[in-house]
Specification:
2 helices; mainly alpha; 53 residues
Length: 53
C-alpha cells in the first residue's frame, strides 16, 4: 500500500505540471483546476505515504 501511494503521488505530480503547462499555454483562459485538483490529491497521497513510513 505504501508503494502504491508513492507511485500515485508521482503520477499526480506529473499531472499537476502538465495541467500547469496547459494553463500557461492557453494564457490563463482555461480553468486553473487542471493544475490545482491533481495537486490536492498529490498532497493527500504524499501525506498518506509519510504517515505509513
Amino acid at each position: 500500500m505504501k508503494k502504491a501511494a508513492l507511485v500515485l503521488s508521482i503520477l499526480l505530480i506529473i499531472l499537476t505540471f502538465i495541467g500547469a503547462g496547459y494553463v500557461l499555454y492557453n494564457r490563463g483562459r482555461v480553468n486553473a483546476g487542471y493544475a490545482a485538483i491533481p495537486l490536492v490529491f498529490a498532497l493527500a497521497s504524499i501525506a498518506f505515504y509519510r504517515n505509513r513510513k
